[in-house]
Amino acid sequence: MAEPGEFTRRAFVNGRLDLTQAEAVADVIDSASDKALNSAISQLKGGLSRRLNGLHDTLLNVQAQLEASIDFTEDGLTFQSREDTQKQIQEVETDLRKLVHSFRQGRIYREGMRVTLVGKPNVGKSSLLNALLQEDRAIVTAYAGTTRDTLEERARIKDIHIIITDSAGLRDNPEIIEEEGIERTRAALEKSDLAVVVFDPSEPLDDNDKLLMDEVGEKPRLVVLNKSDLPAAWPTDQIKTFMAGEQPITLSAKTLEGFDSLTNALHQKAIGGERVGESLVITRERHRDHLQQAANALHNASETLLSDYSEELIAVDVTLAMEHLGAVLGKTFEEDLLDKIFGQFCIGK
Ligand SMILES: Nc1nc2c(ncn2[C@@H]2O[C@H](COP(=O)(O)OP(=O)(O)OP(=O)(O)O)[C@@H](O)[C@H]2O)c(=O)[nH]1
Ligand SMILES: [Mg+2]
Question: Which stretches of 112-206 are DSSP H helices?
């Protein structure tokens, strides 16, 4: 009987695929959306490998230069200047940081975007969840404090999956059960990629709306003004003093007027604008961690170059960076890691 991922593992061990390509086989099988599938296929075809191998080669060159100047320093030979070496190292570091940065996008393609609906009690968060799911999933009542626990559901907007959490309304002086709910809201917010911050313009703004802004902090957000079917109790552009630079989306969870603007905005946030959508993204935490460490090592190498330390010291960091790139590509690996990666495959494959 074949083990999980056995055939892909053999292909890797025999050098037919590198590790990023082997991982992409699993990603193609698991892909839950077109975006995820496309990025997995591009990785399988060697998109990420080529990019990383290119960077690895540049570092190998740098390393050769450094070694040469260590060995032949007495012979009056001239090598690449420290400035040029530093420039090369910095370019690789910049490229790596871009890849590290793309992980947010890659994870959204692979796993979906985590969205938390937040707002003070009764603004219509649960109604919005139901509208997004197109079913009456969450309990909706006119009583403020209806939702006590967080509720997580999956929905799909075009080619993107979103994982939506409805949460307990945030307010000062809640009842005890509600307080526990608010803690969970905070935890959900912390984990999410995006906060959908909901206001109800048909009721006066109060301290709880302000409190909300502190809770959301620096999190990426969409601002929603719900209940547009009711007369507004305050001028809605006042919201801009709360949230600098945000263009609020006005809609009604009841009549669904303006609702398309919300789904479009969610989709835009998920694909991160077309520009990011087109380029190479990394989708695994394993890759992110190694690339981050490689970039950090190169950062140290640049710093060392700026001061007058010897080439040997710089070479140590450049080697470390190459090792991390090699680990992503599977140039060096441990059996445990392979067990972990291939264990996630289905039987055979
Ligand atoms: N007129 C109108 N009423 C709405 C709209 N959205 C929600 N409501 C009503 O507002 C009340 C509260 O809605 P919920 O969705 O339960 O609000 P919530 O934010 O989840 O409230 P909590 O769970 O208590 O925090 C209910 O009576 C809804 O029917 C809307 O767009 N228009
Ligand atoms: Mg609710």
Answer: 125-133, 176-191
What one-character DSSP code corresponds to residue 162?
A: E
Note the pLDDT of residue 26: 86
**Same domain, yes or no, for 231 and 283?**
no
148 alpha carbon to ligand 2 midpoint, in Å? Answer: 8
- Residue 256 CA: distances (Å) to CA of 119, 251, 267: 19, 7, 18
Residue 297 lies in a domain: yes
Of all ligands present, the nearest one to the C-alpha of 226 is 1
Kindly provide the residue ranges of all beta strands, DSSP E only, lying in 93-180, ordered along the sequence.
113-118, 151-157, 160-166
The residue out of 247, 273, 299 marking a domain boundary is 273
* Helix 19-30 × helix 335-343 angle, to 10°: 20
Q: Does residue 164 sit in the same domain as residue 179?
A: yes
The b-or-e profile of 50-63 (16+ CB within 10 A means b, else e) is ebbbebbebbeebb
Flag whether the pTM goes above 0.90: no
Burial (CB < 10 A; 0-12, 13-18, 19+), residue 289, is middle
CB neighbour list of residue 90: distance below 8 Å, 6 or more residues apart: 298, 302
- Spatial separation of the C-alpha atoms in residues 317 and 176, rounded to whole Å: 53
146 within ligand 1 shell (Cβ under 6 A): yes
Residue 1 lies in a domain: no
Q: Is there a domain that residue 223 lies in?
A: yes
| CATH number where 338 lies | 1.20.120.430
What whole-number distance in Å separates Cα of residue 246 and Cα of residue 217?
A: 14
Point out the ligand nearest to the CA of residue 120. Answer: 1
Residue with token string 């945030």 = 170
179-215 confidence digits (pLDDT tens): 787 888 889 999 999 999 999 999 988 888 888 888 8
